[in-house]
Design a protein that fits this description.
The chain has 91 residues and is α+β, with helices and mostly antiparallel strands. It has two helices and four strands; from the N terminus they run E-E-E-E-H-H. A hairpin with a 2-residue loop joins strand 2 and strand 3. The chain is flat, with a radius of gyration of 17 Å.
């Protein structure tokens, strides 16, 4: 089921590209802390949204401090479909 996954490095090592009106601007990191921060991703193959939800419910989160007995933490996992190249070209 798991196809890929990785953690993301600090925004200090990244950049944001803003495209509008035919031009593009680049802002080098680091970026101010965001309330909703993407820290990593998993890419899975699932037969349905329900299967993906079941997978996320069962997945252990060993990197979390609570898994090491340090503190209680909540994790929110967003589940989204991948846009295929065919869908992108058709849009």
């Amino acid at each position: 089921m798991l196809l890929a996954g990785a953690g993301l490095k600090s925004s200090a090592r990244g950049a944001r590209v803003l495209v509008r009106r035919g031009g593009a601007g680049v802002i080098d990191g680091p970026f101010a802390e965001a309330k909703e921060l993407i820290a990593g991703f998993w890419m899975i193959r699932a037969a349905s949204l329900d299967d993906a939800i079941d997978w996320a419910r069962r997945l252990p989160y060993p990197a979390l401090p609570e898994a090491r007995g340090e503190v209680e933490v909540e994790v929110e996992v967003e589940i989204r479909e991948v846009l295929t190249m065919d869908e992108l070209v058709a849009a």
